[in-house]
Amino acid sequence: MNGIDSSDDNEKMENEVCCLIDDGVKCNRIAGNASFSKRIQKGISQRKMKLSLDALARSQFICDYHKSKIQSARSMKRHQRTTISRDSDSGSDSESPEVDFYSLQVQTLRRYKKYYKVSTRPGLNKAQLADIISKHFMTIPVKEKEVLAYFIYTVKHSGQVQNNTKGLD
Q: Any idea what the Cα angle at residue 74 is, between residues 46 and 98, rounded to 5°?
């Protein structure tokens, strides 16, 4: 239409294969429009993904499969940064429950703070209070076997259990 024949370019793009080597195996998928940049290369090395650039590749375009794999690894890293994990000094390898303190009402957060006698400075907003409480929550030691035994006992006896928290301390 404008005097430029783009059919040759389209054929070349369709014949291009992904420029990545995945765990030692050359990828043979058709390359998409995403290119392999220094930023992507840095992200791959930081995440210890087994992807590398094929030195013999004619282009630096990657396939849609690897594009989504890189993007999902990036979003997983973001998710891990935003979730609260146990302190490294606790020595526990078990997974901690995820509690979203940010979705609780301010009054509930204040009751938690009062019950556990968490010291804070006055005038905190909801986000600051939720952050402090979530950190405190992660430090509470839990004896799983005792808690589970108490829970099963409570369920079997239809919730008609005396308020016995002596065994849970």
A: 105
Alpha-carbon gap, residue 67 to 133, rounded angstroms? 38
The pLDDT of 123-127, averaged and rounded, is 88
Distance CA 29, CA 63 (A): 6
pTM greater than the 0.70 cutoff = no
- Could you read off the pLDDT of 40-57 as tens digits, one per residue? 888 887 777 888 888 888
Q: Using a pLDDT cut of 70, give the percent of the chain over it.
A: 71
The pLDDT value recorded for residue 159 is 58
Annotate 2-14 with three-state secondary structure.
CCCCCHHHHHHHH
Q: Could you tell me if 98 and 83 are in contact, meaning their C-beta atoms sit under 8 angstroms apart? A: yes
**SS3 for 150?**
helix
Rounded to 5 degrees, φ, ψ at 61 are: -95, 145
Q: Quick check: helix, strand or coil at residue 35?
A: strand
SS3 string, 108-143, reads HHHHHHHHCCCCCCCCCCHHHHHHHHHHHHHHCCCC
